[in-house]
Amino acid sequence: MDYLDGNAAAGLLSEVFAVDVTSARGKCAHCGDVSVIAKAHLYTDDHGMVLRCAVCGDVIAMATERSSRLCLDLRGLDWLELEV
Ligand SMILES: [Zn+2]
Q1: How far apart are CA 83 and CA 70, in angstroms?
Q2: Distance 7 CA to ligand 1 centre (A)
Q3: For residue range 2-55, what is the model confidence (pLDDT) as tens digits?
Q4: How far apart are CA 20 and CA 23, in angstroms?
Q5: Where are the beta strands (DSSP E) in 10-58?
Q6: How high is the pLDDT of residue 69?
Q7: CA of 18 to the centre of ligand 1 (A)
Q8: Residues near 46 by Cβ (< 8 Å), separated by ≥ 6?
Q9: How far is the CA of 68 from the centre of ligand 1 (A)?
Q10: What separation in Å is there between the alpha carbon of 67 and the centre of ligand 1?
């Protein structure tokens, strides 16, 4: 399946975070890799997006938008560090 790089997630995630999310760093809960979100692999469809770890391919974040609500699932990250 084709994917975009994590930079493409900036538009949707900027609706939630008032900072540049692509420069944020996160730790993959599966393999422990620490990378900036921009290096993740982004898969999108009509329902939302899935970010996968560039190292192990596990899901690190999911976002769906429905009825003017954005639902984020970040359980694939041990932590997310944002520059403020
Ligand atoms: Zn990983």
Answers
A1: 22
A2: 18
A3: 888 878 877 777 766 777 777 889 999 999 999 999 999 999 988 899 999 999
A4: 6
A5: 25-28, 34-36, 41-45, 48-52
A6: 86
A7: 26
A8: none
A9: 31
A10: 31
Cα dihedral 59, 39, 10, 75, rounded to 10, equals 30
Global model pTM greater than 0.70:
yes
The whole-number average pLDDT for the span 56-82 is 92
The number of residues in the chain equals: 84
Ligand 1 centroid vs 32 CA: distance in angstroms? 6
Confidence at residue 58, expressed as pLDDT on a 0 to 100 scale: 97
Question: 35: CA distance to ligand 1 center in Å?
Answer: 9
pLDDT at residue 15 in the model: 66
